Amino acid sequence: MLAILGIVTILVLLATIISKKLSPLVALIAIPIIAALIGGFDFTTLSKFVLSGIKNISPMAAMFIFAIVFFGVLSDAGLFDPIIDRILKLVGASPPRILMGTALLALMIHLDGSGAVCFLITIPAMLPIYERLGMDKRLLCLMVSLAAGVNYLPWTGPTLRAAAALKVPVTDVFTPLVIPQIVGFIYVFSLAYLLGKREARRLGIDNGTTTDVVLTRELKEEEKVLRRPKMFWINLILAVVVMGTMISGVIDPAPMFMIGAVIALLINYPKIADQTARVNAHAKAALMMASILLAAGAFVGIMTGTQMISAMAKAASSCITAGMAQHIPFAIGIISMPLSLLFDPDSFYFGVLPVAGEIVKMFGIEPLTVGQAALMGQMTVGFPVSPLTPATFLIVGLTGVELGEHQKFCIPFLWLATIVMTITCAIVGVFPF
């Protein structure tokens, strides 16, 4: 009974989110509550399940809120401006350098974990040079997609969701994936160079013949008011210290970003009115993600407390042999990128992943591995081409490339990135082949 109820609950959750009948926030709270009531659980018991789930997720929600504020304030103060300007100056009219510069810029901007912000800054900065040289704009789409996708970080949505769904610290998920990510970066820049050489041949550009092409980026007046150029080196040191300390595990991510956000506000905007304005400017993005995470905590708490997840896992495990189970993480990794075309991040990480985790756990395999496998592509490398994410339409809208052309051109390269990183995971022992 519980297994059937759990399956129906997840299917309804997936259907309502994918079809946009309900927002993820509403679906993650309402659907499991209704299912639990149908299963005979009372409100008093349900409230305990919800609070238990929220308690597990609250450190991650706090981390995300203050990560958004921290990187938002540093961006407002102009930390990334010299990096952007230097990249624009260096790429010149060499297609290989242009593609590699595009990837580097997207990687830097994506440090705040927001794909939308990455695309909104990178594409307008680089698009004029692609148009001026007559370069294929699908290459611009590909480079920003690859760079943002491979740059999964402890504070990005998929990583947070994976940790939340499996109820493990986010650093436990991310740290073993550093080497596969480095290999992913190597793949991105190698591909950028090779595709750039191909594009140079197509355009007949020989060793940067038109190197007079140098772009500058003009800031809006409201952006100029916020810039703090004299604080660049202090902000850079602060960013390096915060990220390095967090990744090392010396201090938990949530308090580290809290401290970092406070210091960033104090040194860049000492006036109370300015601090309030900067927090308010980034509050919408922070609150939106935090509310989703807390709702997900309620969902996981109910599904776990009612034992629906364990019941589904037991039913599924009856069809799986021990020999098959050890290959589940690797299989999930290989197909994780195409899964982005079928599942949005909330329905996959909070609906599918917990069940997969319970299944492998029954065969003595660490559930964490399925979460790490999913990060090889599910709404990381896959999100910039998924019709289920606004970021995809942002890319095609900013570049003027048709959605179908964008997907047709980019999906093979994106999937290859997933395959390369998944194989690397198996080689370094994150999970077996």
Total domain count:
1
Structural shape: globular
Distance between the termini: 34 Å
* Helix coverage percent: over 70%
Rounded mean pLDDT score: 86
Low-confidence stretches: none
What's the β-strand tally? 0
Largest sheet: none
- Give Rg in angstroms: 22 Å
Order of helices and strands: HHHHHHHHHHHHHHHHHHHHH
> How much of the sequence is in beta strands?
under 5%
Number of helical regions: 21
> Strand pairing plus helix content: what structural class?
mainly alpha
Structure report:
The chain has 433 residues and is mainly α. It has one domain. Helices cover 75% and strands 0% of the residues. Helix 1 packs antiparallel against helix 18 (345-361), helix 4 (81-91) packs antiparallel against helix 5 (95-109) and helix 17 packs antiparallel against helix 21 (403-428). The chain is globular and about 65 Å long. The chain starts with a helix and ends in a 5-residue tail after the last helix. The model has no long low-confidence stretch (mean pLDDT 86).
SSE blueprint:
Layout: H1 2-18, H2 24-38, H3 43-76, H4 81-91, H5 95-109, H6 115-133, H7 137-150, H8 157-166, H9 170-174, H10 178-203, H11 221-226, H12 232-248, H13 253-268, H14 272-305, H15 308-317, H16 322-325, H17 328-339, H18 345-361, H19 368-374, H20 390-399, H21 403-428
Helix pairs in contact: 1-2, 1-15, 1-18, 2-14, 3-13, 3-14, 4-5, 5-6, 5-7, 5-10, 6-7, 6-20, 7-10, 7-21, 8-14, 8-18, 8-19, 10-21, 12-13, 15-18, 17-19, 17-21, 18-19
